[in-house]
Amino acid sequence: MATVGKRQAAGDRVREAERARDDLRDALKAAGVKLPSLGLDVASCAGSTPLALIDLGRCNLATARALSAALRSSAGEQQGAAG
């Protein structure tokens, strides 16, 4: 793959990670959860073949509990729909 093609693919991967981060932020917001440090892991976005990882960051105890409750609620809804 040519250098320009590699750069374009790397840029595409980072843009895809940005969209995934935004989707996650929106879903968390709908569940009443805000992860204040949610973002892209800058180091993983570097280089010719970036991993483009999403960094969930740090949160306080209240946010961790809200996230746990949202996940449990979602899991309960999925079990109810399957049953």
Note the total helix count: 2
Helix proportion: 55-70%
The number of domains is 1
What radius of gyration results from the CA coordinates? 17 Å
Number of strands: 2
What is the N-to-C order of secondary-structure elements (H for helix, E for strand)?
HEEH
Structural class by sheet pairing and helices: mainly alpha
Q: How would you sum up the global shape? A: elongated
Estimate the strand proportion: under 5%
Question: How are the strands of the largest sheet arranged?
Answer: 1-2
Stretches where pLDDT falls below 50 for ≥5 residues? none
Main sheet?
Answer: 2 strands, antiparallel
Give the N-to-C terminal Cα separation. 49 Å
Question: Mean pLDDT, as a whole number?
Answer: 88
Question: Which features does this protein show?
Answer:
83 residues, mainly alpha
Structure description:
A two-stranded antiparallel sheet has the order 1-2. The protein contains two helices and two strands; from the N terminus they run αββα. The N and C termini lie far apart (49 Å). The protein is mainly alpha-helical and 83 residues long.
Helix-strand blueprint:
Blueprint: H1 3-30, E1 39-40, E2 54-55, H2 61-82
Antiparallel strand pairs: 1-2
Summarize the structure.
By secondary structure, the protein is mainly alpha-helical. It has helices spanning 3-30, 61-82, and strands at residues 39-40, 54-55. The chain is built from two helices and two strands, in the order αββα.
